[in-house]
Amino acid sequence: MKRLLVVALPLLALACGRATDSAAEGEGEGEGTGEGEGEGEGTGEGEGEGTGEGTGEGEGEGEGEGEGTGEGEGEGEGTGEGEGEGEGTGEGEGTGEGEGEGEGEGEGGGGSQGEGEGEGDPEPAACEGVLDFCANGLFCDGFETCDPLSIAADVDGCVSGQPPDALDAVGCTVDICDEGADVGDNVGSFTHQPDSGFCSDGVFCNGDEQCAPGAPGADAVTGCRAVPRNLDDGSVCTTDGCNEGDHQITHVAVDVDDADACTNDFCDEATGEFHEDAGIEDDGNVCTLDGCDSVTGPTHDPIDFDDDIGCTVDTCDPITGLRHDHNNVVCDDGQFCNGDEQCAPGSSGANATTGCKSVGRALDDGSVCTTDGCDEENDQITHVAVDVDDADACTNDFCDDATGEFHEVSSIQDDDNVCTLDGCDSVTGPTHDPIDFDDDIGCTVDHCNPITGPSHDSNNGFCDDGQFCNGDEQCAPGASGANALTGCKAVARDLSDGSLCTSDGCDEETNQITHTAVGTNDNNACTVDSCDPIAGVSHVGVDPNDGIGCTNDSCDPSAGVSHTPNNGFCDDALFCTGVEQCSPGAPQADGASGCLAVPLQTNDNNACTTDSCNEGADQVTHDPINASDGDSCTADSCDPSSGPIHDPGPFTHVGDFTIDEASDVTGLSTKCLVTGSLVVTANDLANLSLPDLRAISGELNVDGNTTLESVELTALQGVGGRVRVSNNAALEQLSLPLLTGVGGSVEVVGNPVLTSFSFDALSGLGGAIDISNNAALTTFTMAGVPNADRVDIRTNAALTNFSLPALADCGNSIIDSNAVLTIIDLPELQGIDNFQILNNAGLATLSLPALETAGGILEVFNCDALTTASLPLLAAVNGLDLQGNLGLTTISLPVLATAAGNVQIVANDTLPSVSLPALTNVNGNLQIDSNAALTSLSLPVFNSGGFNVSVVNDDLLTSISLPVLTVISQSLFIQDDSSLSNISLPQLSSVGGAVLISQDDALTSCTGALIVNVGDCVQ
């Protein structure tokens, strides 16, 4: 169907127009009547008189000024002038004249009437043929004329114009009338926009259809033309086509195989099929001759590398080629002194057949100082030194290799001792005679040091005359006044100590110099007597000032200094400081002034007042204190004996509280503590907001609230029991940002539109974590929880990740059927009981970096996207079960040593290897079963199985080696491993039940003391 789109500018200042649906809010002046139907909203105030009937449709807002007339029926009268604002839309029947002022909204249909007072102008006349009165200046709605007698004329006599025909009669264009930029001059234009949507036949392979009226090949009526789809990709190497079902052009490669194994077959984009000689295929082995057989393909025949020489070892290395290594052992005749025999084929003197050659042995060492020979018995060349000794102890005898025997007179042999004289005796050899080092001086002690030579140490003891007061005698040979023979010199003793305060002398009896103090006392108590070693005795008057401000200080020559207290120096003339006394040295007295203030007693012993002193009024005051603690959760008062009281009673609800309907919330609106449980089960509550609630002694149970959208307990810090938020069909927001401690479990279960939440302030938990059946939940965090009795994360269809970064210890845990879960963040988890990770189809990586023990079973089951399971510190488990994880390629359990129960690795289809390098014993079953890609099994220290050991249905496994396995309590099953060729159980000495090795079709080798003719395994 053709579409006509008209583009026009807003109508402004219409003199003659049609009634339209509209919306307006504004101010205006005008006169008019109207008739129509509609619905609208409006209220108003104004002046005027009139009655009217009508209905109206529409609603809107706007502003404007104007005059208008309309068609209608009715009666009314009134005049008035004014300005008005309003909201409303509508067409209606009614008449009225007037201008008024009003605002309003309303909705109505039918008739309406109003009353008022005012003054107005008379009703205007018809247009009377004045064309400009009717023309609105718009091109796209035609040309309006003034014809009051026409049945099509409106009340003003205007007849609407006929819109111009914009259609171009072409089926695939959209025809548009554009008013143009200059509204009011009846000038516009038409545009015809092509729309290929009118042309599409819905078929892909016949090409695209375009709207292109007038183009070559276009249909004259519809304007459409078909553009065939180009299928040719320009290559002779493909067969081109089109697939209508997939809406795709296809290019299938042609077959160019010529069945010749010695050609390379390909297709040249320009020339087509081509077969190129493949050439001789080099196998990289220089020890083969490369060729090609047209049927079997490349050939590589060994070359002949024997050189027919007896003493060479002939080999060929695939990379370096032929080698003919000489073997001298083949040529050896067993004789030493006639020289060595060498393998030297082709050299001068060599045997042509054996390749051996004898090389004579050289005996001469080139020295005239030796006699050369050969010892056949010991296979040694000998060189015996000639004898050159001339029997003279004072010569050095030696032999020069070039000139022969030589005797050199030796120099005097220095013994490095300056205290000897060095020489030589031709019979006895070197001599070293002591030198004379005595200086013939009586007070010296003479020495000779072998390195430094003679020394003469002074010894005053040789000079002492036994008298003290005449001075010391010193050994000072050569000094002025010293005796030439003894070397001694007397030195007089200095008795002075250099001080005027002593009398100096000498006591021969005690061998001491004496210094007796001179007298200084002048018997005057007002002087300080002293003696200066340089200046002598002095008597300086004392200063009686004690440095304390409140004492009168003086001095009497007989009685000495006195300090009399004077309270007058202490009065500060202030009331509030109390009475001041001069009490120097007293506790609390001022150190400088000596004054002690006796404080004014202001305490009224009332804990509810602040005691102070008013200096201006010379009064003690007692003002009431502010007893408020600023906590909205306490009622504040004051007890004169004990002080402020903060009673939580008025803000505490005692016992359980149930919210069955929205109005019940007001009962807790001012409460901060509930001493029992809080249960919310309302079906008319949209938002649970209790901004003052801080603690709940019992449980918090928000269950089955069908309209509840948000839970905002923004001040809640502690819950004594469990927190359960369950089965709330509309719950979108769960906010408990300050929740720190929960005495029971945290359960968020069955909330289908809840997308995320975080309890990151929670650090104390007395029960379990249960997050289950929340269909829209994508993530949650509990950053501070260190332990939990149990963790259940089940059937959360949108959950992509969750984080318990501080969880270190947990009881049982199950993470089950969370279809898009990709991340399990438990970085600190060290110990757990049973841990089940089941049916999480999107989980790609399992990393538990800190887990050390599992007291129960660790089970990873049916996680199809899981590729890696890493448990680097896990050392002990009760049981381990890895089953049905179709994408699993890597298991890392480097320190797992013991399992108290079963270890089962079953039906992991892409798992290539199982390595348990530290596993020593399994007290239950060890089962490696139906792992389709398993090629490697490594259990290097596994030594005992407490029940059955079975390796079954692992089709790609080629070898089983359990080098230290010694004991199996029950049975050994190795069955249906179709690629298994080798079994090695060298230490197995005890099996309590059956040994079944069967249906292993490729098995060629079995070793082990207990494996003898068992099934299809033959030793």
Descriptive overview:
The protein is mainly beta and 1019 residues long. It has a 22-stranded parallel beta sheet that branches. The radius of gyration is 62 Å and the shape is flat. Mean pLDDT is 79; it is low at 1-124.
Concise synopsis of the structure shown:
With 1019 residues, this protein is mainly beta.
Helix/sheet category: mainly beta
What portion of the residues fall into strands of 2 or more residues?
35-45%
Low-confidence stretches: 1-124
Over all CA atoms, what is the radius of gyration? 62 Å
* Assembly state (oligomeric): single chain
DSSP, total strands: 84
In helices, the fraction of residues equals under 10%
Number of helices: 1
The coarse overall form would be flat
- How can the largest sheet be summarized? 22 strands, parallel
Query: On the 0-100 scale, what is the average pLDDT?
Result: 79
Please give the alpha-carbon distance between the first and last residues.
90 Å
Question: What descriptive keywords fit this protein?
Answer:
36% strand, 1 helix, six-stranded parallel beta sheet, 1019 residues, 84 strands, 0% helix, mainly beta
Mind sketching the topology for me?
Blueprint: E1 3-7, E2 50-53, E3 111-114, H1 131-134, E4 145-146, E5 158-159, E6 173-178, E7 189-194, E8 208-211, E9 224-227, E10 238-243, E11 248-253, E12 263-268, E13 272-277, E14 288-293, E15 297-302, E16 312-317, E17 321-326, E18 340-343, E19 356-359, E20 370-375, E21 380-385, E22 395-400, E23 404-409, E24 420-425, E25 429-434, E26 444-449, E27 453-458, E28 472-475, E29 488-491, E30 502-507, E31 512-517, E32 527-532, E33 536-541, E34 551-556, E35 560-565, E36 579-582, E37 595-598, E38 609-614, E39 619-624, E40 635-639, E41 643-647, E42 652-653, E43 657-659, E44 673-674, E45 678-680, E46 687-689, E47 695-696, E48 700-703, E49 710-712, E50 718-719, E51 723-726, E52 733-735, E53 741-742, E54 746-749, E55 756-758, E56 764-765, E57 769-772, E58 779-781, E59 787-794, E60 801-803, E61 809-816, E62 823-825, E63 831-832, E64 835-838, E65 845-847, E66 853-861, E67 868-870, E68 876-883, E69 890-892, E70 898-899, E71 903-906, E72 913-915, E73 921-922, E74 926-929, E75 936-938, E76 944-945, E77 949-952, E78 959-961, E79 967-968, ...
Parallel strand pairs: 1-6, 42-44, 43-45, 44-47, 45-48, 46-49, 47-50, 48-51, 49-52, 50-53, 51-54, 53-56, 54-57, 55-58, 57-59, 58-60, 59-61, 60-62, 61-64, 63-66, 64-66, 65-67, 66-68, 67-69, 68-70, 68-71, 70-73, 71-74, 72-75, 73-76, 74-77, 76-79, 77-80, 78-81, 79-82, 80-83, 81-84
Antiparallel strand pairs: 2-3, 4-5, 6-7, 8-9, 10-11, 12-13, 14-15, 16-17, 18-19, 20-21, 22-23, 24-25, 26-27, 28-29, 30-31, 32-33, 34-35, 36-37, 38-39, 40-41
